[in-house]
Structure to design on (346 residues):
């Protein structure tokens, strides 16, 4: 055997990008039998790809955590599958980033077991994180500490680091990306463009995407955004208005923005309450305009449907640290994703 490709994923959104990455690998004559995906997502997006998918246990309850803590079945599954790769003399491992628990564990615990082969470590695009140099500064940083603690319940201990989450160890040699001219190269030798398959969208509905971190906006913020939505998107212009809650928000009752839309507008909102990426279901919704708080989905939708849809973002200054705002606006400008409201409008 010659070369294998190992792809690491943790979420349905990442799986969607892996489908596009696999299409690219196929286009350069990489056989699907040499592609392995390690994932603990439980969707069906990867079911019909003809690649080897190693499904890890998804931790979705306290009981799952306890079982994993004592059995460490995920760790055992990974180590068992790694042994299959001993016949390859070249292996490329493609990560989303290293703040991802599975990626972090794989780097520290599995790569040493693959040192019989010539290794290449690469990145694939994971939403807006691919276009900004987000970095960790301390073990006690919220994004780090929470992963460090919960990773033991996943059976995959997380090793904290300080530095850019895309390449804290200065090991990335290739970066697969949707937008090369907006991608931070770090010390990679090569940027490789991949693509969403272009689709057509004939829509006449309005879609609003919910956000996860409810504490980012106070009621005054949301009220201003709400008034702008009512002004720019009058009910008479749309046959139906959809709202999709963020997949990580457990209960729609905790979605303040959704509650305000119901209470303070005359919109008759149809709730989408599943956890599938909106990029996979938007054609069924037939949305023409999409509104979200700096969501990765806006980027993916624009890459997929181009000018067939209109995308608007809000809350950039609320949701993003000031040093990263310029990276968001660069990508939004490239893709013609427009601000719903300017900060000096209110």
């Amino acid at each position: 055997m010659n070369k294998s490709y190992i792809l690491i994923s943790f979420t349905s959104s990442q799986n969607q990008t892996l489908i596009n990455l696999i299409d690219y690998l196929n286009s350069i004559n990489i056989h699907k039998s040499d592609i392995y995906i390690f994932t603990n997502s439980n969707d069906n997006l990867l079911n019909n790809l003809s690649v080897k998918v190693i499904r890890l246990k998804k931790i979705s309850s306290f009981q799952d955590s306890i079982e994993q803590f004592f059995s460490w079945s995920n760790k055992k599954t990974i180590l068992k599958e790694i042994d299959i790769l001993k016949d390859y003399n070249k292996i490329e491992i493609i990560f989303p980033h290293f703040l991802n628990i599975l990626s972090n564990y794989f780097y520290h615990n599995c790569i040493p077991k693959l040192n019989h082969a010539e290794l290449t470590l690469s990145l694939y695009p994971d939403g807006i994180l691919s276009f900004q140099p987000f970095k960790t500064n301390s073990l006690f940083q919220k994004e780090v500490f929470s992963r460090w603690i919960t990773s033991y319940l996943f059976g995959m201990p997380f090793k904290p680091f300080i530095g850019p989450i895309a390449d804290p160890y200065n090991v990335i040699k290739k970066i697969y990306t949707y937008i090369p001219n907006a991608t931070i190269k770090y010390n990679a030798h090569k940027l490789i463009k991949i693509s969403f398959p272009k689709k057509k969208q004939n829509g006449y509905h309005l879609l609003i995407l919910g956000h996860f971190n409810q504490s980012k906006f106070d009621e005054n913020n949301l009220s201003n955004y709400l008034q702008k939505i009512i002004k720019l998107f009058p009910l008479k212009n749309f046959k139906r208005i959809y709202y999709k809650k963020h997949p990580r928000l457990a209960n729609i009752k905790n979605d303040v923005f959704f509650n305000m839309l119901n209470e303070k507008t005359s919109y008759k909102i149809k709730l989408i309450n599943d956890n599938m990426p909106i990029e996979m279901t938007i054609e069924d919704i037939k949305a023409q305009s999409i509104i979200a708080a700096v969501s990765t989905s806006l980027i993916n939708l624009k890459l997929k449907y181009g000018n067939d849809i209109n995308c608007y973002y809000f809350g950039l200054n609320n949701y993003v640290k000031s040093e990263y705002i310029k990276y968001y606006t660069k990508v939004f400008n490239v893709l013609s994703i427009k601000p719903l409201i300017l900060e000096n409008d209110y």
